[in-house]
Design goal:
single chain; seven-stranded parallel sheet; Beta Polymerase, domain 2; Beta Polymerase, domain 3
């Protein structure tokens, strides 16, 4: 029925308000006020109240069951709103992106009223983009860690050593399936244990050296048991990437060697196999970290001994983007600060939303001033830790900032974000952000492309131009470490490094445990070849403070 096609707006609503349960319930207490907030009509207000009261949206849950997954994917295309999807579904029985593509190619769509050739072509273009960027069958790296943690705990007791290879080890932002490599005294018993784990939905195959299962979550996990002496060779082989492995084999061939998952051989003689380092050295290369194994210049750098000394999680001295329950965070300022201290940080910036984000009860000048006062007071008694006064201020459509310079000047750093008007043209969106940077209070551009992995595409901007300007002006861009954002992505990070622009890595924490997402930001920074020096929050506050003085 009609309702099927409203799922997208429900989804959007529930995404916007997920992770802000406490402020939601507070908002829900005052239902009349809620209905008057910009962007929230009566029916949306009711949905918010329902989520506040039940923890989820019943309609959304029901719709999710009714509507085939393939049709939901159609809704993710930019050109395909709920109405269009319904029309095509009714007129041409479109059930999936493949159906849609076929209908467009065969000229069926342009014949429909309200569509035409142009729209049909746009839809095809969207599909191409979707197929290139989106892999809905993949899991977020952060999700995977949760899904396999208990499995790893169980397995650990039955193996000698164990590593997850594949794209997981290369810390790609999404992971297809999990390849576990292990050595074990009694492989048969280990395999028996592996296939009988509680969270297993289906056993795809079971053998002495390799078994394959699907977990309840749908994630496929393979376990390979290898010999100790070929550990390095197996690790290298199953870590990939494909592109990296192809080059490795070429190099081996040039030296008249044979390279496989058991080692490097000349004839029958085993030349190397125990460690990856030995494997690389036999090929005339310095050890290459897994995050760099994408055939993106790592071979050349390795030969010249010019590989980057990649940043590590331990290099991070503080978080530069976090929220409290003053806006849409789940915990109080004191709780967030305490958690950051416990992580061993030296500082943590409190950067709540500004007033434009009305749904999150963004701070106006007065409330921000009160927060500044509160932080000053807390800092007075703080030893070895500093709370940084900050804000995540919205960049308005015309490029001005959402709060006055008077209050922004009071802060230690100003994080700036685009949350609204995401659909501007590339040139307009770019000059909007450049204009914002002209404000001398501007320090860091948060989640610079606005993407949500597998949910929301980047907005159109000239990132290179923005990066160059930022470097010139003494501004910085953020690597947002939230596992569903990772924005900037690895290639953008690499571009920043090449342009000489330094970055921050921040969690954008809306709750205490989000502070732990820092590792995912560091992972992507490593994939982008960053060293400690490239990241501003590896500096002690005394140095960071100087960096934040605009040129
Ligand atoms: Zn934001
Ligand atoms: Zn934020």
């Amino acid at each position: 029925g009609e309702d099927q096609f409203r799922i997208r707006s429900y989804r959007n609503a529930s995404r916007v308000i997920s992770g802000m349960s406490e402020s939601i319930s507070r908002m829900a207490d005052d239902q009349e006020k809620l209905k008057k907030l910009p962007g929230i009509g009566e029916s949306m207000a009711e949905k918010i109240i329902e989520i506040a009261e039940t923890g989820k949206l019943r309609q959304l849950e029901e719709l999710k069951k009714e509507v085939p997954q393939s049709l939901l994917e159609v809704l993710r295309l930019d050109q395909m709103g709920p109405q269009r999807t319904k029309m095509l579904h009714d007129a041409l029985n479109i059930q999936s992106i493949d159906d849609l593509e076929k209908a467009a190619r065969e000229g069926e769509i342009e014949k429909l009223e309200g569509f035409g050739k142009k729209t049909s072509a746009k839809i095809l273009k969207e599909i191409e983009k979707f197929k290139k960027e989106d892999r809905p069958d993949r899991f977020l790296l952060g999700e995977v860690d949760e899904l396999i943690s208990s499995l790893l705990d169980h397995l650990e007791k039955k193996v000698d050593q164990m590593t997850i290879a594949g794209s997981y080890r290369r810390r790609k932002e999404t992971v297809g399936d999990i390849d576990i490599l292990a050595t074990a005294e009694d492989p048969g018993q280990t395999m028996e244990h592996f296939v009988s784990l509680e969270e297993t939905r289906e056993v795809l195959s079971k053998g002495e050296s390799r078994s394959s299962v699907v977990l309840n979550s749908g994630l496929q996990v393979d376990l390979r048991i290898v010999k100790k002496r070929s550990w390095g060779a197996a690790l290298l082989y199953f870590t990939g990437s494909k592109a990296h492995s192809i080059v490795l084999r070429q190099i081996a061939r040039e030296k008249q060697y044979k390279l496989n998952e058991y080692g490097i051989f000349r004839g029958k003689k085993r030349l190397a196999s125990k460690t990856e380092k030995a494997m690389y050295e036999k090929l005339g290369l310095h050890y290459i970290e897994p995050e760099l194994r994408e055939d993106r210049g790592e071979f050349k750098a390795s030969r010249k001994n010019r590989l980057p000394r990649l940043i590590t999680l331990e290099d991070i001295r503080g978080d530069l983007h976090s929220h409290t329950d003053a806006t849409d965070g789940r915990h109080s300022l004191e709780e967030m600060v305490e958690a950051a201290r416990k992580k061993g940080y030296e500082y943590c910036a409190i950067s709540d939303h500004s007033r434009r984000v009305a749904m999150a009860r963004g701070l106006d000048e007065k409330r921000l001033a009160a927060q500044v006062e509160q932080i000053d007071e807390l800092n007075r008694d703080m030893k070895g830790f500093r709370i940084l006064k900050s804000i995540e201020v919205d960049i308005l459509e015309d490029g001005s900032l959402d709060l006055s310079d008077e209050i922004l000047k009071e802060l230690d750093l100003v994080v700036c974000s685009v949350h609204y008007h995401r659909n501007l043209s590339r040139s307009k969106q770019t000059s909007r952000i450049l204009r914002a940077m002209e404000n001398p209070c501007f320090n860091i551009l948060a989640h610079p492309t606005g993407r949500i992995i597998q949910e929301r595409r980047v907005y159109e901007i000239d990132l290179e131009k923005i990066m160059k300007e930022a470097a010139d002006r003494g501004c910085f861009l953020e690597i947002n470490a939230a596992p569903d954002r990772l924005d900037l992505n690895d290639e953008h990070i690499r571009m920043a490094r090449e342009l000489g622009l330094r970055l921050s890595i921040s969690t954008d924490a809306h709750a205490l445990d989000h502070l732990n997402n820092m590792r995912y930001g560091v992972d992507q920074a490593r994939r982008g070849w960053l060293e400690k020096e490239d990241v501003i929050n590896t500096r002690p506050w005394s140095e960071l403070k100087k960096l934040l003085q605009r040129k």
